[in-house]
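A protein record in our archive is deliberately plain, so that people and models can read it alike. The tokens are whole numbers drawn from a learned vocabulary of local backbone shapes. For reference, a complete record is included directly beneath this paragraph.
>
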Amino acid sequence: MNNHLKGVLYVGVGAASYGILATFVKFANNNGSGTAGLAFAQYFVGVVVLSLLSFLFSKKNVAPTDKKQTRKNKLKLVAFGSFLGLTSSFYYLSIQYIPVSVGIILLMQTIWMGVVLEFFIKRHLVTQKKIIGAIAVIIGTLLAAKIFEVDAALNFKGLAFGLLAAICYTGTLYATSSIALELPLFTRSKYLILGGLMVTMLFWNVQIIYEFDWWVYLKWGAFLGFFGTILPPILFNKGIPVIGTGLGSIISALEIPISVMSAYIILQEEISSLQWLGILIILISVVYINLKPKAKK
């Protein structure tokens, strides 16, 4: 198997890991587990495992850099990791009020939010292709979120939490692609997840104590920690440098159909034909935005 195909598989499996999270959080909720305890357990397990991996493997690969600058970058990662923790908290809150199949669509608004962020950070005009793609994503979202379905009961609290999750996810993606890239993989992931753990504890505070249950931590914490905070960052960091950001973004969009299908199979959520059309439009938009034309010979 060549390196390019390996890179594609790494990113695909990472996207699939993210895609199943919300379904299993809601499944755990339906079986009596509280959201605060689940979110805390996910990040706690992630910090413990990544700290161990960082201790075992990262020291050998650290390049000699200025200690003060390295410390500053680690603090930046912790700060931006708060976006990651808020993403999970808002996302898991949103699916208490709306179906998982709608929640994932709202989370993926980061596609056009990222275009807006790029405009303000890089201070240059956004390309026509990205503007068209962003508008198409919004149209697909209106279909996939059941806005045009008369019999659909929209919960605006769920929609608000979903959009807040998307805003925070946009900040997370910016951090993972541009902050402290010189640090080893496990070290970067550890500090990002540590920031996520800290903000999760602040966000849910005493609710975590009320929902404290060792069985929940052992069972769901290990599962959510592995598929939500350990496996995806490792796979994305291994795969995206090989295949490039454009193709990586396209393959990462697999998170949408995987999330929808897992909700359909495990939670028996109904998915209408209009929703599938909206999802298809969003996926095509992601490909359109990121696919580069072949160079003329």
The CA atoms of residues 229 and 252 lie 16 Å apart. The radius of gyration is 19 Å. The chain has a mean pLDDT of 84. The longest helix spans residues 214-243.
